[in-house]
Amino acid sequence: MERVPICPDSNKTIAEWFDKIGFSGDGVTQEQIDNTYRFVFTAGQNLDQELPVPKDFFENPTVLAAAELACQLHQEDRRKVGGDPYFKHPLKTACLCAQLVRAEDFKQGDLNQYYWEIMEAAAFLHDVIEIRRDKDNYNTEQLTKDLIEAGIEKEKAAAITYLVNKLTPSSKEEGISPEQRRREKQEDFLRIMTETCNDWQGSDKEMMANILRLVKVADILANLEETVADLPLGRTNGLFAGKPVEYVVGVVGDRVGYLNERQDSIPNCAIDRLQIYLNQLNQLLKRE
Asked: What is the pTM for the complete model shown?
């Protein structure tokens, strides 16, 4: 399979990137690497059209620096079902952002380079505070510091951190019912989708709100695709045993319903893909 270079000025490839995060270590086959590559860099199975990942996604220094930082911060994190590196989720989310913002049906497809950079960088880092805050007290101040140390200028680092902070949910309360958790999920989703970014001025205010919504939708789409892919294996190895997948369907259904009523701010192709995977998840559940 052809490998996509991370940076045109180096010989690094996606395969070598997987090496770095420990995915292609002992006991991992080339087929597994290729399957992960396909998962990350295609729109998914059973879709009529796949959007390409744009070339500049792999060339932008800000995006690459954020990706390297995310890779480092998620170094020890693994997905629960298959044990794959967690980094493949933010990688998938960032790729989806790069695809969707350039979709022909999206009125914000003319976003300038600055906003592409901070959006894709935030997509790579959107989970780092939520995952690492309880492990090592990671916070927004540390993220901004790390971004600057990674070579990202102070203004961009602050904008990226702002987006990541808005995308980070509050700490989860333990022992609550699936119904209450679903309500919390929807409230958090609505908080992000209606965020006005009043800390910014003029056109920046609207643009920051737009890209915040797009990163969240890409995150939802990546999570849903991963759930569809993981469900059969999770039922087999027991990691999904007792998990109320109907709750996942309900959460996504709430979000798809909301987005269907507000298609002016989200690419139609994203909503269509969410509906496709929601339907696939429902079909899997019917076979249980």
From this structure: 0.83
